[in-house]
Specification:
Layout lengths: L8 H13 L3 H13 L7 H13 L3 H13 L7 H13 L5 H21 L1
Organism: Steroidobacter agaridevorans
Protein name: Sel1 repeat family protein
InterPro entries: Mitotic_Regulator, Sel1-like, TPR-like_helical_dom_sf
Length: about 120
């Protein structure tokens, strides 16, 4: 962020990677943001998803919502509405911001998918 020091995205990403290597969920989350934005690392939605998933599995609530969003939209991973719904419900249970809206959007998509499959 550059508080008290010169802003350096490459060094920030390196430090987040060290924390992620040690299993720190918050570091995985921050590193995912770096990959999403191409800040200090080459932009990669796939790598962003991998780190969000690690953070989510480590209990990071915002990462749980990010994983749900990626699975819902297919960004950085293959879309999977059932898995997206599970992660979104967990994020909602853990009071993630905007999780209720995300759950509603995913469940609406699941209903549409179900009714489309039923009509065939």
């Amino acid at each position: 962020m550059g508080y008290g020091v010169e802003k350096n995205a490459v060094e920030a990403a390196r430090l987040y990677q060290e924390g992620a290597n040690a299993g720190d969920a918050a570091s995985h989350f921050s590193l995912a943001l770096c990959y999403r934005d191409g800040a200090g690392v080459e932009r990669s939605l796939e790598r962003a998803f991998e780190h969000w998933l690690q953070a989510a599995e480590g209990g990071h609530v915002e990462a749980q919502a990010a994983v749900a969003q990626c699975l819902f939209t297919g960004q950085g991973t293959e879309a999977d509405l059932e898995m997206a719904a599970g992660w979104a419900r967990l994020a909602l249970k853990n009071d993630a911001a905007d999780a209720a809206e995300l759950v509603a959007r995913i469940e609406a998509a699941l209903r549409r998918e179900y009714h489309s499959a039923k009509a065939v």
